[in-house]
Amino acid sequence: MATALADQTLLLPSPAAVFGGGSDRLSQEIFSILESNFLFGASPPPPLEGGSFSSAGRVRVLSIDGGADGGALAAAALARLELKLQELSGNPDARVADFFDLAAGSGAGGFLAAALFACRMPAAAARDVVAKNRKVLSGRCGGGLFRRRRPEAVFRKVFGEMTVRDAAKPLLIPCYDMASAAPFVFSRADAVVADAFDFPLWQVCAAACGVGCPAEVASLDGRTRLRAAAAGGGGGASAAVANPTAVAVTHVLHNKREFPFAAGAADLVVLSLGGSAAAASLLRPSSSSLLRIAGVCQADMVDQAVAMAFGESRGSNYVRIQGNGMAGGETAEAALAERGVESVLFQGKKLMAQTNGERLDGVAEQLVQEHHRRLESKMPPVVLVKPSATPRTSSSSASTLITVSTNSSSESP
């Protein structure tokens, strides 16, 4: 086991120590305002009297990191969460996708999000696929069940001919496009309105995980073409969007057609699944290990920014699950028994009172309560999933890190 974190490990000096007493709280308030405005836009409309949850409900968001561990911790967390959801709801056939309104996944997290929301795969089955194909899902080609076949075979086998628009609910999967030198977000909101933004799911997941050097991806009509970067040891998206939580949150808050009542953090409940910190340790200096470290740092920065934007409601409306460093030979399930870790402004990382597993169980209770509330409510639907035939009035490209790379080239993908 990696060296355990102290209950409060200081990585940077406290502003109070530098500027005098009282500035710590002031600095936190200033940064909270800045981050909130950056993520959600300034001056959001005030909540309805009595709180928006009591009237319109909360949008349930699932965000899954790529992770240098190949999605092992996230897959284990999803399997545990699904079992708890089945127990609390009394439905043995319940799936994770039944209790969330949107999923965003980066790298191996993109595969997990697509498998759960497009294929309706049981979380335990998705965990088994991840366990057998860790090298492929973490951007290191080869190994696993498909070692004698091309690495993208795992994605072809799972998704077949399915495309992004086949997802039952909103789905976001980022990658890094070398052609435009910018992040690109594969989005169901775009895919349902134009073939130019609809892609085969197996290609999307291969691109997100960095399979191919680089991976060539083309839309169904060939008008949109990408050259997804292959960043070994963390997936192609790890260099750009290791933690897709901010992408998911901004998509919800700016997509008024599908999420008409989401005006701010109080209208969301977000579960963000990270990876194991030990998988990104710099044992031997190399380009891939440096990329893994960069991905972990980027994921932690997004985690802290989003937590600050949620403010006082982050304890209930925003839950981040991540490993505290697993030693060799330990399972991802063991990380769920560890105490949770949170990033604190100017104060590094802090161990929480609850374990990751206990926090997951708490999220499950919230999700089931919201599910039952919707079944009994006479209020308008909280989420209006865009059907395939609607005109293009809302898109992830309006508010998230997305750059469309289109051309008329006849080259094959």
From TrEMBL:
<dbReference type="InterPro" id="IPR002641">
    <property type="entry name" value="PNPLA_dom"/>
</dbReference>
<feature type="domain" description="PNPLA">
    <location>
        <begin position="62"/>
        <end position="249"/>
    </location>
</feature>
<keyword id="KW-0443">Lipid metabolism</keyword>
<dbReference type="GO" id="GO:0016787">
    <property type="term" value="F:hydrolase activity"/>
</dbReference>
<dbReference type="Pfam" id="PF01734">
    <property type="entry name" value="Patatin"/>
</dbReference>
<dbReference type="GO" id="GO:0006952">
    <property type="term" value="P:defense response"/>
</dbReference>
<keyword id="KW-0442">Lipid degradation</keyword>
<comment type="function">
    <text>Lipolytic acyl hydrolase (LAH).</text>
</comment>
<feature type="region of interest" description="Disordered">
    <location>
        <begin position="386"/>
        <end position="413"/>
    </location>
</feature>
<dbReference type="GO" id="GO:0016042">
    <property type="term" value="P:lipid catabolic process"/>
</dbReference>
<dbReference type="InterPro" id="IPR016035">
    <property type="entry name" value="Acyl_Trfase/lysoPLipase"/>
</dbReference>
<feature type="compositionally biased region" description="Low complexity">
    <location>
        <begin position="388"/>
        <end position="406"/>
    </location>
</feature>
<keyword id="KW-0611">Plant defense</keyword>
<comment type="function">
    <text>Possesses non-specific lipolytic acyl hydrolase (LAH) activity. Hydrolyzes phospholipids as well as galactolipids. May play a role in disease resistance.</text>
</comment>
<keyword id="KW-0378">Hydrolase</keyword>
<comment type="similarity">
    <text>Belongs to the patatin family.</text>
</comment>
<protein>
    <recommendedName>
        <fullName>Patatin</fullName>
        <ecNumber>3.1.1.-</ecNumber>
    </recommendedName>
</protein>
